[in-house]
């Protein structure tokens, strides 16, 4: 539970941390489409800042010149200049923001969409590993950080950097000795900044990971609300959450401490340099080597540079946060789908590397199995990618032939690997050895999309999406008609309750709609599996939540569907097994027996136990 | 109607277009966001004052610079020429001190304000989370996890922006505006008044900006929540998403939501641009106008030139914070919109509240273990209408095991949920040893009643952690004992790290049946006086179910139990069977009696016998 929420990322936060710049450069493909606007905006910002610097000079000239000389024409002219510059400054400021507003919102959206698309296509094994809160926080807070970075620090690091550079040159040109004194803190400041940057980057990364954990805990606390309430654990859950937020607070404060130090130094060191220049300048004035006016001008130029220097601290901080966000984002984006195709039938992109990951396509592939239709497992072995290398594989040497049109029941003790085996057929996972053929076609040579178009699944856990009841069913078949919908609902004995919903089949269900009971969800999921008249049907304990009466009705209707479909049905009970022509017994990841229900009941003690509990009461 | 009764009850009403849940606009009292902010900041009043003082001092050290220059030129130079180094040394010392002081003050400011902002965020996150946990099931069934996540993450984040950046902005703006306006008024009444007058049109801009950005930011928060809801739904259903090739339709749906957010997001940024342009325009025009007016006054001799020079330099600085004011308002409105949503959530009252004055249960009698359950004139209907259970009375004797069966949609689960106090009855009372459930504190209630449902959710953490939810202070031995009692020990020890195996995300590698066993072990560990099992064995295989039943014989001894099961095998251990139909109890008796009666139960029993084959 939440007290011990693990964070797969925090463990591997550091080793490969790139420099912030390298991380941020990876944003280029997303920024590229708006580069013209961004560059223009940066130029506009520079010009606007220059105008901002010029206005006081004009004002000074106006007061010292025309006004002092009582020159009405000059006053009007000067006033006109001030007005014009003021208008230009205002419009340019607005222009800068206008230029980047929509494009940067667009960059954020494009990155989010790319993340979402990518996540949908990553293998299930990836999702097993990553808590969804961590993924979600990458798609929300991290991307917001990136947008903010592109809006503000990126431009102003440039603008302020230019200002400091130009200002430095001007200062040196005005009086090189004073200029050198003023520029003396540059090196220590740079050293400080780089130390700070590395530390801050790590701290930023930590807080962002913790924010991801926080998201996970919030999500779990809602998804598991019935258990929390059922055991009255909302206090301890809240305590766990509090611990996590306190850890987050501690990291945030650590970040603030770092920022406070660097900002403090960024403030103090230039001030000391200015003080030094003042002392040196005063000496020179006293010696008559320098006029008082020049010293004043020099110092006011130096003061103008104070803000650009001070702000570097937090601009760097924001950039480092953005870099950490970029790292987090690309950590997910860099995950490659093993067989890298789109989830669609007409797979676009690179289908060339499909066979990777399974030792198939070898010369003996034209064996008898290929000629055979149906669903064939030959020598299939499977080990979860994150399993310890020395642990036994979850499935080993599975060889099983389900003939076309045949229904095979898969029976095995709890945890024997039944669900894992069924997940191989729609290529939710790929076997680590051996192969699976569908009507003679090697599954590994089919794209995931093609495989999934042939195979329909009803999962053990019936998940409905936020859509209407009818849409949820119709997801199962690409070209399914209204008549298919009715038929599928009838098969699942779901037509009655669907029609009784407030808007019938058009009623919104799922998380954002009406909540249905477990049995209702299961029947809609079953209807979804059969609506497209798939060639291959995988049913994982499809009737577990139904009562005896409904179960009998569904079985009768399902029998007709199964008569023409090649099907693999995970079964816990004799009544479900009887839907099948033959039964395969899965024991500890191996198929130990295949035969009809009655044969196995007679000959196989393990099967008899599974079907009757104590080896008694069988027919 | 052919419905089953497991899982959540159907809502008689589906969210309509005007529904406040569907639109993510929960009713919120006026000014709720402001009072929420005030209540969050109230405990930090002192620190906020400290922040203001630190900033004030810092401004002072900044202003000291020019004075120091003046002193150096006016005093130190003549003194130097006279051979006196004292004043120059004084300048050097003071300059160093000022520098160190301003750096230190900056450091102090960041640290104090970070403390304030982090404590406020901690407080707010805690409030959202605790409140979310306290709200009743019927709320969660409608609000969606995505929205709650959005409230606790992105919405809190926008308050953080306000606190981190806004605090400094606001204080600096106020300080410098007050300081400069006062100086202007001191220099010349006319200019001061003119500068004040320019605040009029600026105020109008600020107001319209605030109005517009309020709308935009509220829309933005809703749009973000929509994106998050879709995001989490997809991630949580990734298997069916991939198996049914929902990727493309999902891409399209997500693109729509995301694009909506993009538009609103862009609109928010454009509002800011519009504000910057218009307020800068007013400010710059005001500067030009005042300068011209000043020039005219100098020409007419009513104003000294030096005063005008000073005024002109200050004027620019007066309007400098306008952009920063815009940024502040920006983060303020963004935070206010989020706070509004959060306040709406916090304003929701649990429909199953904790009692103000909790009562403790009487000690369990040694002679009759378990507790007596009584439903007195209980009626249950959804708040929107739709009666589920018409008025009924029912007493379950202490220590008995009562099975509830019946056609689907009969109200079995609702009965169980009333007993578990997931819902409160619309009328009547549910009593545990004579005490109304509504008068029990949560801790006391859960010592009394625990419910195991068929959906066995696993939290991230280890298997042992998941069992320990039943009783967090349980030792490892007790946890293993509970697992052994229910037949879960073998599969758990076969896991890579045994009890310390991380179940990862939502128990990916633990089968549904095994998860139900973990759920059972959890309930056993909780050791309640009344145990409710709602379809708790639906995913077990037959040996597993048998093992559980054998365990039940010992486990249920000394407890009152209410068992709902489609598979009547469970009923063999029941002392008493209730048959429900259409929300009413239609048959009631021992299993043997009911089978002999040849009623509904006898028919169900026969059908089940046939199905087990």
Describe the structure.
The complex is a heterodimer of chains A (619) and B (613). Chain A has 619 residues and is α/β, with parallel strands linked by helices. Chain A folds into 2 domains: 100-333, Up-down Bundle (ABC transporter transmembrane region fold); 363-612, P-loop containing nucleotide triphosphate hydrolases (Rossmann fold, 3-Layer(aba) Sandwich), CATH 3.40.50.300. Helix content of chain A is 61%, strand content 10%. Chain A has 25 helices and 12 strands. Chain A has a 6-stranded mixed beta sheet with strand order 6-9-10-3-11-12, sandwiched between helices. Chain A has a 4-stranded antiparallel beta sheet with strand order 2-1-4-5, covered by helices on one side. Chain A is elongated, with a radius of gyration of 35 Å. The two termini of chain A are 44 Å apart. Mean pLDDT of chain A is 83; it is low at 1-16, 339-370 and 615-619. With 613 residues, chain B is α/β, with parallel strands linked by helices. Chain B is 62% helix and 10% strand. Chain B has helices spanning 32-41, 45-81, 86-134, 137-143, 145-187, 189-236, 238-243, 247-299, 305-319, 321-347, 412-419, 442-448, 463-468, 476-486, 489-494, 512-526, 542-555, 591-597, 600-612; strands at 373-382, 385-396, 401-406, 427-432, 435-436, 449-452, 530-534, 560-564, 576-581, 584-589. Chains A and B meet through helix 4, helix 5, helix 6, helix 7 and helix 10 of A and helix 2, helix 3, helix 4, helix 5 and helix 6 of B. Chain A: Residues 338-369 are annotated as: Disordered. Chain A: Residues 39-321 form the ABC transmembrane type-1 domain.
Largest sheet of chain A: 6 strands, mixed
CATH architecture of the largest domain in chain B: Up-down Bundle
Q: State which percent range the strand residues of chain B make up.
A: 5-15%
**Percentage of residues in helical conformation of chain A:** 55-70%
Radius of gyration of chain A: 35 Å
CATH class of the largest domain in chain B: Mainly Alpha
- The counted number of beta strands of chain B is 10
Oligomer: heterodimer
User: How many beta-strand runs of chain A?
Assistant: 12
Going by CATH, what is the homologous superfamily of the largest domain in chain B? ABC transporter type 1, transmembrane domain
Strand content of chain A: 5-15%
Rg of chain B, Cα atoms, Å: 35 Å
Q: Tell me the greatest interface.
A: A-B, 207 and 194 residues
**What topology, given as strand order, has the largest sheet of chain A?**
6-9-10-3-11-12
Lateral strand order in the biggest sheet of chain B: 6-7-8-3-9-10
CATH class of the largest domain in chain A: Alpha Beta
Number of domains in the coordinates of chain A? 2
Query: What structural class results from the helix and strand content of chain A?
Result: alpha/beta
* Structure annotation, total helices of chain B: 19
**Structural class based on helices, strands and sheet pairing of chain B:** alpha/beta
């Amino acid at each position: 539970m939440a007290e011990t929420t693990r964070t797969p990322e925090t463990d591997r936060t550091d080793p490969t941390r790139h420099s912030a710049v390298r991380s941020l450069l990876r944003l280029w493909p997303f920024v590229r489409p708006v580069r013209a606007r961004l560059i223009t905006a940066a130029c506009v910002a520079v010009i606007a800042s220059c105008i901002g610097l010029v206005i006081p000079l004009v004002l000074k000239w106006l007061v010292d010149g025309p006004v002092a000389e009582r020159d009405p024409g000059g006053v009007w002219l000067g006033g006109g200049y001030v007005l014009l510059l003021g208008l230009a400054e205002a419009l340019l400021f607005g222009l800068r923001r206008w230029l980047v507003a929509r494009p940067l919102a667009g960059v954020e959206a494009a990155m989010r969409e790319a993340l979402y698309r990518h996540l949908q296509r990553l293998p299930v094994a990836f999702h097993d590993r990553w808590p969804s809160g961590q993924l979600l926080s990458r798609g929300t807070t991290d991307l917001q950080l990136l947008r903010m970075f592109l809006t503000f620090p990126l431009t102003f690091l440039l603008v302020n950097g230019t200002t400091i550079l130009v200002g430095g040159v001007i200062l040196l040109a005005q009086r090189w000795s004073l200029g050198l004194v003023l520029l003396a803190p540059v090196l220590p400041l740079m050293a400080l900044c780089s130390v700070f940057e590395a530390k801050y980057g790590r701290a930023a990364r930590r807080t962002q990971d913790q924010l991801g954990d926080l998201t996970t805990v919030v999500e779990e606390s809602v998804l598991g609300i019935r258990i929390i309430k059922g055991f009255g654990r909302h206090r301890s859950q809240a305590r766990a959450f509090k611990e996590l937020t306190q850890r987050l607070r501690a990291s945030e404060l650590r970040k603030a401490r770092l920022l406070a130090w660097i900002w403090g130094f960024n403030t103090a060191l230039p001030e000391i340099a200015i003080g030094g220049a003042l002392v040196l300048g005063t000496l020179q004035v006293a010696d008559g080597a320098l006029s008082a006016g020049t010293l004043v001008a020099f110092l006011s130029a130096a003061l103008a540079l104070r803000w650009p220097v001070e702000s570097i601290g937090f601009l760097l901080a924001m950039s480092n946060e953005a870099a950490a966000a970029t790292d987090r984002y690309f950590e997910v984006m860099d995950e490659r789908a093993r067989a890298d195709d789109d989830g669609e039938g007409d797979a676009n992109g690179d289908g060339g590397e499909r066979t990777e990951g399974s030792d198939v396509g070898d010369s003996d592939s034209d064996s008898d199995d290929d000629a055979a239709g149906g669903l064939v497992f030959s020598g299939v072995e499977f080990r979860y990618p994150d399993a310890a290398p020395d642990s036994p594989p979850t499935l080993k040497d599975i060889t099983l032939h389900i003939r076309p049109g045949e229904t095979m029941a898969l029976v095995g003790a709890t945890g024997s690997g039944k669900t894992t085996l069924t997940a191989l057929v729609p290529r939710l996972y790929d076997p680590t050895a051996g192969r699976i053929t569908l009507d003679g076609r090697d599954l590994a040579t089919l794209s995931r999309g093609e495989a999934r178009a042939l195979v329909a699944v009803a999962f053990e856990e019936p998940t409905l999406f936020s859509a209407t009841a009818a849409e949820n069913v119709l997801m199962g078949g690409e070209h399914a008609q209204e008549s298919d919908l009715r038929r599928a609902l009838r098969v699942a004995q779901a037509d009655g309750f669907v029609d009784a919903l407030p808007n019938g089949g058009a009623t919104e269900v799922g998380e954002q709609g009406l909540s249905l009971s477990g049995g209702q969800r299961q029947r809609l999921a079953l209807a979804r599996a059969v609506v497209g008249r798939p060639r291959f049907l995988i049913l994982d304990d499809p009737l577990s939540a139904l009562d005896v009466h409904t179960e009998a009705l569904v079985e009768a209707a399902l029998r007709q569907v199964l008569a023409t479909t090649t099907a693999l049905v995970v079964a816990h009970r004799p009544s479900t097994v009887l839907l099948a022509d033959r039964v395969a017994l899965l024991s500890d990841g191996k198929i130990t027996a295949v035969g009809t229900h009655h044969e196995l009941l007679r000959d196989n003690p393990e099967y008899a136990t599974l079907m009757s509990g104590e080896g008694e009461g069988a027919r | 109607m052919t419905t089953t009764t497991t899982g959540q009850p159907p809502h008689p009403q589906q969210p309509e277009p005007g529904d406040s849940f569907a639109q993510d606009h929960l009713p919120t009292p006026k000014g709720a966001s402001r009072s929420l902010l005030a209540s969050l900041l109230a405990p930090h009043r002192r620190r906020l004052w400290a922040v203001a003082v630190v900033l004030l001092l810092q401004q002072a050290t900044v202003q000291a610079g020019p004075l120091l220059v003046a002193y150096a030129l006016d005093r130190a130079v003549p003194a130097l020429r006279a051979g006196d180094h004292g004043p120059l040394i004084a300048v050097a010392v003071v300059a160093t001190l000022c520098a160190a002081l301003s750096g230190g003050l900056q450091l102090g400011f960041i640290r104090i304000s970070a403390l304030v902002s982090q404590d406020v965020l901690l407080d707010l996150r805690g409030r959202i989370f605790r409140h979310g946990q306290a709200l009743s099931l019927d709320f969660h069934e409608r609000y969606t996890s995505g929205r709650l996540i959005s409230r606790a993450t992105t919405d809190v984040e926008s308050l953080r922006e306000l606190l981190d950046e806004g605090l400094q902005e606001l204080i600096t703006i106020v300080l410098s505006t007050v300081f400069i306006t006062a100086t202007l008024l001191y220099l010349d009444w006319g200019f001061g008044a003119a500068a004040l007058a320019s605040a009029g049109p600026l105020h109008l801009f600020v107001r319209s900006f605030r109005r517009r950005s309020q709308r935009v930011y509220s829309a933005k928060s809703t749009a973000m929540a929509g994106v998050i809801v879709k995001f989490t739904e997809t991630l949580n259903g990734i298997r069916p998403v991939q198996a049914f090739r929902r990727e493309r339709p999902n891409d399209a749906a997500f693109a729509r939501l995301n694009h909506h957010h993009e538009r609103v997001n862009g609109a928010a940024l454009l509002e800011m641009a519009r504000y910057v342009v218009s307020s800068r325009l007013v400010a710059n025009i005001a500067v030009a106008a005042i300068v011209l007016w000043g020039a005219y006054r100098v020409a007419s001799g009513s104003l000294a030139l030096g005063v005008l020079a000073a005024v002109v330099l200050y004027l620019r600085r007066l309007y400098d914070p306008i952009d920063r004011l815009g940024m502040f308002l920006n983060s303020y409105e963004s935070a206010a919109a989020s706070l509004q949503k959060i306040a709406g959530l916090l304003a929701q009252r649990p429909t199953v509240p904790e009692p103000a004055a909790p009562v403790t249960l009487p000690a369990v009698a040694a002679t009759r273990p378990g507790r007596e359950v009584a439903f007195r004139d209980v009626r249950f209907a959804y708040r929107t209408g739709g009666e589920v259970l018409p008025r009924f009375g029912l007493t379950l004797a202490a220590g008995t095991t009562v099975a509830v069966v019946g056609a689907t949609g009969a109200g079995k689960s609702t009965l169980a949920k009333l007993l578990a106090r997931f819902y409160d009855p619309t009328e009547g009372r549910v009593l545990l040893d004579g005490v109304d459930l509504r008068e029990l504190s949560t801790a006391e209630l859960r010592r009394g009643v625990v419910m195991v449902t068929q959906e066995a959710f696993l939290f991230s953490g280890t298997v042992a952690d998941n069992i320990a939810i039943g009783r967090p202070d349980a030792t490892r031995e007790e946890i293993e004992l509970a697992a052994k009692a229910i037949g879960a020990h073998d599969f758990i020890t076969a896991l890579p790290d045994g009890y310390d195996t991380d179940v990862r995300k939502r128990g990916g590698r633990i089968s549904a049946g095994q998860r139900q066993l973990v759920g059972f072990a959890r309930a056993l560990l909780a050791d309640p006086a009344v145990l409710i099992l709602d379809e708790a064995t639906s995913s077990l295989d037959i040996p597993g179910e048998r093992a559980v039943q054998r365990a039940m014989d010992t486990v249920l001894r000394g407890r009152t139990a209410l068992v709902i099961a489609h598979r009547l095998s469970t009923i063999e251990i029941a002392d008493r069977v209730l048959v429900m139909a259409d929300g009413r109890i239609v048959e009631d008796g021992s299993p043997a009696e009911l089978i002999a009666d040849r009623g509904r139960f006898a028919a169900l029993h026969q059908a089940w016998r046939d199905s087990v084959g």
